[in-house]
Backbone:
């Protein structure tokens, strides 16, 4: 299926503002990392004693997370009539992990995924982006479930430090806003309400497009339920990657404590103050896990988890290299 130029995402602004935003995020990450690691030379030396079994478990958890993420996106695409093999969608999803890890902004990896899906699956970019938006929202129920099950349960651990307490408050507002947006989108997805939207308002066409996508997903409740169910083990695997990362550098911490911290970490990492959450994530790990372990070690374990995601992205690009541009592959 040919792709028109109108399917491409809008070009970045040419005034250089987006570049300065990226520069500020890089500076923020570097500054936060320097603040975290000042005075922790002994912790850095301790990290030389790796527990390779835990490091391997971190990579295994990342692989499970990537496989489930590919499955969830495949389900979202099929609701829109796009039937691509799971392995191809997963390869594209994995490749986006590398760009998630190195690109400024929260959407850079998704734009790259949509472009790669057009190249390897002949899916219009705009359609790919729409499915990714709904794909992320489908994981919201899992995040709420884990936040209630772990974060609320271990709130005493998180609120023992000023940064952890602020993170819990932000997570609560973030989840309320995200749930509210999802409910409003489902309400607005009704065909009659879409037609009544004023055409002269800025962005109306995009809102109608998104609402139309929600209308399609609202009718495909079985696929939506399956995606929500996949999201729970997906998110647990993602969180477990960072648990294994901190255990790999010798931090003795309970699995449930990391599960309680990670919803806060992922929500705060979306703030546009750092590069893909670098520095913010490590500061939270160092402060919250600090009383029971060397803060420097906890931060290094967080960096190891981030590195596992980037390595999984590299594997995705290598996987894509075996898939021909026309959307076919030797094993499809």
Residues:
């Amino acid at each position: 299926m040919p792709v028109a130029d109108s399917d491409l995402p809008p070009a970045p602004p040419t005034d250089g503002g987006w570049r300065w935003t990226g520069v500020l995020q890089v500076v923020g990450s570097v500054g936060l990392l320097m603040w975290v690691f000042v005075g922790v030379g002994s912790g850095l030396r301790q990290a030389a004693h790796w527990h390779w079994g835990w490091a391997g478990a971190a990579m295994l958890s990342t692989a499970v997370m990537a496989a489930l993420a590919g499955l969830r996106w495949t389900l979202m695409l099929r609701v829109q009539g796009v039937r691509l093999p799971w392995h191809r969608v997963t390869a594209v999803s994995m490749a986006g992990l590398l760009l998630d890890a190195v690109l400024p902004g929260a959407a850079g990896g998704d734009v790259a995924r949509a472009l790669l899906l057009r190249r390897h699956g002949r899916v219009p970019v705009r359609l790919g982006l729409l499915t990714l938006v709904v794909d992320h929202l489908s994981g919201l129920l899992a995040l709420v479930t884990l936040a209630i099950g772990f974060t609320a349960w271990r709130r005493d651990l998180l609120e023992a430090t000023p940064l952890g307490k602020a993170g819990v408050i932000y997570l609560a507002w973030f989840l309320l806003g995200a749930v509210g947006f999802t409910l409003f989108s489902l309400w607005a997805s009704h065909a009659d309400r879409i037609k009544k939207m004023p055409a002269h308002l800025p962005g109306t066409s995009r809102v109608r497009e998104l609402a139309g996508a929600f209308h399609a997903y609202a009718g495909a409740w079985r696929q939506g339920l399956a995606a929500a169910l996949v999201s729970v083990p997906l998110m647990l695997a993602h969180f477990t990657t960072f648990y294994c990362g901190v255990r790999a550098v010798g931090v003795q911490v309970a699995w449930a404590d990391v599960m309680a911290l990670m919803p806060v970490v992922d929500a705060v990492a979306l703030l546009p103050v750092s590069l893909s959450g670098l520095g913010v994530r490590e500061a939270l790990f160092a402060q919250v896990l600090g009383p029971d372990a060397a803060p420097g070690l906890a931060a290094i374990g967080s960096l190891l988890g981030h590195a596992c995601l980037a390595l999984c992205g590299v594997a995705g690009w290598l996987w894509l290299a075996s898939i021909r541009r026309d959307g076919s592959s030797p094993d499809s």
